[in-house]
């Protein structure tokens, strides 16, 4: 059993509460997914559950953590810097049980993850592996330790579709506790039997959480139905209140007129005592109604407060691509690794016409990111189109020590900075977050900064490396709709099955013999 009791976490940088009086109990067989918008504290919660010391430099946390006899294993969102410089073999030897695992078991684990069987003994530095290979290797080491509770932060990031399906089997078949964060809606729908939803509403001034023991699809449907029902009831209550208030206003006017009449009549009033009693009765009625209405108002259904993921249109500054225009006619006889040590693929050709949405898929390490960079080099100086590139590693093009405003502004004048702040507000950034260095923001917030840069650039050809990897499952449908409606061309690399299905009209798999 893994238990959290009355946990409150305050963010010391933003001076806001990201979790308040949170309690949950997880038992063997629970597959709990933590969802919420970017920057809502999902990774912070997962880190605290694994080791409260991991978040003490930027938060103040108070609560009780009960792990009992559970053996916790934690997969971080990013490979730690100290592990990046180790060889793969050194990384595995950090796990004490590694030396005891027989070779055939290692080979079976490697095959299930789509890794070479000799990778465990490789002298390749961890930092040089592809994004998906890093996740697979870390996951393999976790499983070798035979934990009873898996805490996984974005295990689905960057891994290929075969590995995603393997991960689904691991989560479903794991006999212990699985607590994970993922932006892959398909993975969540197929594995989670419990949902922990963290929200920040009222411009991130109020936090709330929901713990629901049900699958994600059921939770999402019930949540939507509850919002719609509450909105309808609130609208009905507001309509009744308007009718009631109008009636009350007429009664008040009647009392005011009676008061004026008595005052004007003065001595000429044939029965001043009776008139006074009538007025007193009316005033008593008014006071009684006021108290009753105040009680009714206190019990009125409130308009539901919903944390909207994004309010933004991509491509509003872009010149649409004509249907017949050749956007890309790209050939590459050979694709090598960046260091030139290994031939990845040959005879590559990619033709893109009009506002086509193309996705390049393939196994981890096959060279998809390297190919996309080569296409970017081919397109970036074209004058008949305007191309823009979103890399898998945001630090390739973003100065992580700058603020979001400084990263986006091109001129830097007051008018532009005001415009950028307005856009960031539409992307759910608080004023405080606009002043943080980009490195202090979540991956999803960094992705939003890139989307805004792409939009303001006026680009009509987008090259996107894993564009949906850091967006929450709640933001995902909005992002996919935005990209599907983009008026230009998109050439992307992705393993997101919903993105491929809903956005991309053309899918190409990168193999050793080119794009298929």
Account of the 3D structure:
With 516 residues, this protein is α/β, with parallel strands linked by helices. It folds into 3 domains: 2-224, P-loop containing nucleotide triphosphate hydrolases (Rossmann fold, 3-Layer(aba) Sandwich); 238-298; 326-515, P-loop containing nucleotide triphosphate hydrolases (Rossmann fold, 3-Layer(aba) Sandwich). It contains 16 helices and 17 strands. A hairpin with a 4-residue loop joins strand 8 (194-201) and strand 9 (206-212). The longest helix is centred in the middle third of the chain and has 50 residues, at 216-265.
Task: Compile the SSE list and pairings.
Blueprint: E1 2-11, E2 16-26, E3 31-35, H1 42-50, E4 59-66, E5 72-75, H2 81-84, H3 88-93, H4 103-113, H5 131-144, E6 149-153, H6 161-173, E7 177-181, H7 185-191, E8 194-201, E9 206-212, H8 216-265, H9 272-298, E10 326-336, E11 343-353, E12 357-361, H10 368-379, E13 387-390, H11 404-408, H12 414-426, H13 431-435, H14 443-457, E14 461-465, H15 476-484, E15 489-493, H16 497-503, E16 506-511, E17 514-515
Parallel strand pairs: 3-7, 3-8, 5-6, 6-7, 12-15, 12-16, 13-14, 14-15
Antiparallel strand pairs: 1-2, 1-4, 8-9, 10-11, 16-17
Q: How many strands?
A: 17
Our Rg estimate from Cα atoms comes to 30 Å
- The separation of the N and C termini measures 48 Å
The profile of the biggest β sheet is: 6 strands, mixed
Provide the CATH topology of the largest domain: Rossmann fold
β-strand percent reads 15-25%
Return the CATH class of the largest domain: Alpha Beta
| Poorly predicted runs | none
Count structural domains. 3
Oligomer: single chain
């Amino acid at each position: 059993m893994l238990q959290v009791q009355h946990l409150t976490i305050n963010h010391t940088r933003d001076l806001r509460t990201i979790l308040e009086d949170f309690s949950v109990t997880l038992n063997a067989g629970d597959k709990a997914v933590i969802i919420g918008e970017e920057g809502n504290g999902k990774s912070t919660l997962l880190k605290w559950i694994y080791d409260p010391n991991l978040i003490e430099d930027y938060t103040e946390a108070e609560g009780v953590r009960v792990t009992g006899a559970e053996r916790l294993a934690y997969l971080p969102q990013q490979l730690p810097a100290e592990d990046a410089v180790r060889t793969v073999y050194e990384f595995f030897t950090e796990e004490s049980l590694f030396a005891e695992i027989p070779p055939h078991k290692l080979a079976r684990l490697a095959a299930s993850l789509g890794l070479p069987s000799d990778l465990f003994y490789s002298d390749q530095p961890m930092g040089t592996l592809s994004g998906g290979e890093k996740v697979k290797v870390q996951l393999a080491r976790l499983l070798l330790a035979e934990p009873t509770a898996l805490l996984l932060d974005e295990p689905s990031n960057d891994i290929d579709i075969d590995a995603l399906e393997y991960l689904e089997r691991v989560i479903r078949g794991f006999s212990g506790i699985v607590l994970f964060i993922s932006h892959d809606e398909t993975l969540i729908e197929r594995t989670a039997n419990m949902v922990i939803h963290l929200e920040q509403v009222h411009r991130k001034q109020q936090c709330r959480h929901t713990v629901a023991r049900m699958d994600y699809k059921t939770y999402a449907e019930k949540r939507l139905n509850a919002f719609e029902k509450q909105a309808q009831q609130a609208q009905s209550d507001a309509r009744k209140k308007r009718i009631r208030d109008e009636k009350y206003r007429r009664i008040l006017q009647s009392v005011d007129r009676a008061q004026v009449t008595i005052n004007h009549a003065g001595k000429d009033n044939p029965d001043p005592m009776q008139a006074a009693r009538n007025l007193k009765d009316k005033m008593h009625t008014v006071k009684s109604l006021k108290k009753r209405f105040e009680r009714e108002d206190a019990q009125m259904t409130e308009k539901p407060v919903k944390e909207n993921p994004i309010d933004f249109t991509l491509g509003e500054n872009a010149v649409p691509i004509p249907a017949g225009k050749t956007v890309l006619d790209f050939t590459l006889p050979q694709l090598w690794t960046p260091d030139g040590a290994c031939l990845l693929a040959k005879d590559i050709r990619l033709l893109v016409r009009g506002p086509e949405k193309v996705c390049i898929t393939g196994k981890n390490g096959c060279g998809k990111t390297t190919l996309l960079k080569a296409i970017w080099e081919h397109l970036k100086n074209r004058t008949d189109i305007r191309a823009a590139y979103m890399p898998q590693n945001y630090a390739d093009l973003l100065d992580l020590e700058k603020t979001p405003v400084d990263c986006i502004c091109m001129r830097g004048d007051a008018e532009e900075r005001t415009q950028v702040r307005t856009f960031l507000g539409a992307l759910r950034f608080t004023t405080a977050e606009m002043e943080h260095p980009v490195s202090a923001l979540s991956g999803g917030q960094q992705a939003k900064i890139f989307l805004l840069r792409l939009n303001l650039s006026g680009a009509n050809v987008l090259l996107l490396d894993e564009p949906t990897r850091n967006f929450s499952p709640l933001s995902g449908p909005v992002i996919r709709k935005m990209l599907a409606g983009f008026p230009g061309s998109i050439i992307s690399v992705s393993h997101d099955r919903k993105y491929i299905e809903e956005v991309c009209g053309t899918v190409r798999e990168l193999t050793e013999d080119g794009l298929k």
